[in-house]
Fold this protein.
Amino acid sequence: MKRAVVITASNRAFNGIYEDRSGQILLKGLQDLGYEIDAVQILPDHQGMIASAIQSAIESDIDLVVTTGGTGISPFDITPEATSPLIEKTMPGILEALRAYSREKVPTTDLSRGVAGVTKKSLIINLPGSPGGAKDGLVIIERLASHIHDQLAGHDHSPGN
C-alpha cells in the first residue's frame, strides 16, 4: 500500500481560528484512493516548518506528500518557497493540469503558485488551501499518481504499460 502525508499550511487553522476543511478532504480522498494515511499535519505559514515536514516525509520514503494552503500571493503564502528546494525533478504539468481542470469553475485558480515534483520515491504536490482546490487536486492525483509511482519504482513506462 502506498503511504501519503498531508500538510496544511495555514496560520488560521494552526491557531484554531477555523477548521481545516481542505486537509480533511484530502485525508479522506487519499484514503479512498488506497493510500495509507492517518492524520493531517497542520502547520503555521512558516517556511522552515513546512520544509522540515516535507523533508521528514521524503526521508521516511513516503510515496505522496500533498500540501494544502500557502500557494497564493499574500505575504504569508510561502509553501512553494518551502517546497521548491526539496524537489529533485520538477513536474509543472501536474499544476498545469489542475489549473486547466479548475479554471472554468474558479478563474482565480490561475493565481495559484503551487509546485510539484519528485524527490527519491516521493511525489510532492502543492495544492490551494480551499476545499474546491483539494477536491480538484484529488482528481489530478487519481489521474496521474499511479503512473508516477510506477515510474519511481523503476517499472517500464512505454506506451500501453
